[in-house]
Amino acid sequence: MTYTKKLKDHSVKEREVWRMFDRVPFERQIAADNQSSEQVLNLLDYPAYFDLVKLPLPDNRAGTLNGLEADGLIVKSDSGLWHISNLGAVLFARKLEAFAHLARKAVRVVLYRGNSRVETIREIPGTKGYATGFEGLIGFINNLLPENEVIGQALRKSVPMFPELAIRELVANALIHQDFALTGTGPMIEIFNDRMEITNPGIPLVDTQRFLDSPPRSRNEALASFLRRIGICEERGSGIDKVVFQTEFYQLPAPAFEVTPEHTRAILFGHKDFKDMDKEDHIRACYLHCCLKYVNREPMNNTSFRDRLAVDVKNSAMVSRIIKQATDVGVIRPYDADAGTKALRYVPFWA
């Protein structure tokens, strides 16, 4: 009986110790301990750091290390050597694989043949830290994307399947909002003939239906703050409003956001003619259009949604049917239910 009680007390204390470690943010935990100054400068792309924060590169090693230390990328150890923080490694690693527990956090890009995962054309694992590798990653994705032919003022030209700004925002979100505690998995970008899926470990802290209007909440505040500072992601908001605006501007189907037991996925769809969209496409487009209008303090009505879908005025009745479907499933509601049919405006269900 006495022995059992002691064991229980020990177990409780052990759990408290682990909880204390859990409270230390991922970014402040150590990626590599007791490194010499030479090792630090070999492992981290320090010229890229000074370039991105728009500071001159110091002309001596001490100045370089002080700069990295000021941003929490490295920490002076009691022995006089240096610890590299997870923040420093995940942002500025020359090679993420040099940090064993971060190797799987490199971004993977997979290009498939067709619209399924049956046949892989290319699979490319990333190597660099997020800050140093971001622009190259976006350029690489754009080069892999199929192109659409459009005709403007009698000139035929090819344009990328997805707007670059939408890709940038969703990739940045995947990096920032991932759950680093989930091992053996990392951010992944999958490119199909008809869509692109961007997946990150961890379920979102905000309901997917509120992505567009809710202030962002991140597990990785220091990471998010630094990437905002160097212009990779939004200073305010989640950037999802930009994604929705871009898809509307380019007349693409509305993006979709999905949650699995351990992951969050954003999906961009390639162009579809109105006649090829299904009921789910229509309702999703209606809901996100309504959200975008609401956060921009503009009314959503039949006319605005018809313009969003590029549907001719003579087909207004088709647009009204979609709005009714969205109302029936409860994602939007009339703002002024007593107004005449033609004057009806709509707001999201949460407004």
Q: Could you please describe the fold and organization of this structure?
A:
The protein is of the alpha+beta class and 351 residues long. It has 3 domains: 69 residues, Arc Repressor Mutant, subunit A (Orthogonal Bundle); 164 residues, Heat Shock Protein 90, CATH 3.30.565; 75 residues, Arc Repressor Mutant, subunit A. 39% of the residues lie in helices and 18% in strands. The protein contains 12 helices and 13 strands. The protein has a 6-stranded mixed sheet, covered by helices on one side. Strands 1-3-2 form a 3-stranded antiparallel sheet. Strands 6-7 form a two-stranded antiparallel sheet. α10 crosses α12.
Mean pLDDT, all residues: 89
**Helical segment tally?**
12
Give the distance, in angstroms, between the N- and C-terminal Cα atoms. Answer: 58 Å
Describe the main β-sheet briefly: 6 strands, mixed
Strand order within the widest beta sheet: 5-4-8-9-11-10
Gross CATH architecture of the largest domain: 2-Layer Sandwich
The total domain count is 3
In the CATH scheme, the class of the largest domain would be: Alpha Beta
Low-pLDDT segments, ≥5 res: 1-8
Named CATH topology of the largest domain? Heat Shock Protein 90
Helix-strand sequence:
HEHHHEEHEEHEEHEEHHEEHHHEE
Helix/strand-derived category reads alpha+beta
Total beta strand runs: 13
The helicity comes to 25-40%
Outline: elongated
Helix and strand layout, with pairings?
Layout: H1 2-23, E1 30-35, H2 37-43, H3 46-52, H4 61-70, E2 74-76, E3 82-85, H5 86-92, E4 108-112, E5 120-125, H6 130-144, E6 147-152, E7 155-160, H7 164-176, E8 188-191, E9 195-201, H8 221-229, H9 240-249, E10 256-259, E11 263-269, H10 279-295, H11 302-309, H12 316-328, E12 332-334, E13 346-348
Parallel strand pairs: 4-8
Antiparallel strand pairs: 1-3, 2-3, 4-5, 6-7, 8-9, 9-11, 10-11, 12-13
Helix pairs in contact: 6-7, 7-9, 10-12, 11-12
